[in-house]
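Hi support team,

I submitted a single chain yesterday and got back a structure, but I'm not sure I'm reading the token output correctly. Could someone confirm the output below corresponds to the sequence I sent? I've pasted both exactly as they appear in my results page.

Thanks,
R.
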Amino acid sequence: MSREQRAEIPHSRPTLGQEDIKPVADVIDSTQIAQGEVVYRFEQAFARKMEVGYAATTSSGTAALHLTLLAMGVGINDDVIIPSYVCIALLNAIRYIGAVPIMAEIDPETYNLDPDDVRKRLTSRTKVVIVPHLFGLAANMESLLALNVPIIEDCAQAVGSTYHNKHVGTFGHAAVFSFYATKVMTTGEGGMVISNSKDLIDRVKDLREYDQKNDNKIRYNYKMTDIHAAIGMAQLDRLETFIERRVEIAKQYDQAFDPLGLQFPPKAPGHIYFRYVIGFGTDSRPYIKVLREQGIGCARPVYLPLHRYLRLKGYPRTEKAWEQTISIPIYPSLSKEETHRVIEIFIETFRKITHD
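Hi R., thanks for writing in. Yes, this is the structure output for that exact sequence:
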């Protein structure tokens, strides 16, 4: 076995190349490295790509959500419904503004927010529902919109995903994106808010920077730099290529793993496979342990359900998803050789543990 084959295959890895270097070098050469013209061009290009009216960059996805909640008038003691099965960033953004997080259950097949469970948790205090399109698969927006509650779409894992042939992020009042290092496309750190409401985006842009204002309203230092935006422009140009590679790898996994009889990601139109999540129907920890020992990066796709942080009882579907699933490597920079190695070792691991 060669040295390259023995190297660990990480769970996540950014897809960067020469295409990303020159735009950054050009920005540095210009000496205009803070928020400037390149940020503006990135906002315009992203809005065009998503086919939406307006966009505003931020320093992170969390910052994007924080500012969107503020721009929509969400505040102290307002209820905000979110799934428990999601990154803690949502919980943090809600707590920043003193609102009340209300946890909801997931659909056990898609892992996305369950509209029926959301309906049961609606009250007169409900101000907004945050809807993640988890792991690159669009949530059931038709049923969620029918609830007639303002929606913020969380597209941190789903840039380029579609629902009924329309980009996710264009159904709710606003949508937020993350461009962290391991996301679908990256700027290193960064985020974006999009909306068809110019007024909402103007409020986000006002809140993201505090200097040279005519009043002392609390604002934030949530700007993106031209350096980050330059990477974003280069990545956005290759978004379709990134997604094509993810779908290609997912098809290889589907074909190879089908005889194992496990739960695999839904084969839905518009699914971009940010994560390839496998459900075992039993405790996933033994599989994670052995795969990591064999050099295959893997993890529970959500570090810890939010209801556990808050010490809330219930949420059996979320508990089952958390306890019984793993995510294996799937990203554009995963080579063909690495893909085959993941397949080979996963099948060996599954058979070993099952027979033992």
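A quick pointer for reading it: The radius of gyration is 21 Å. Let us know if anything else looks off.

Best,
Support desk
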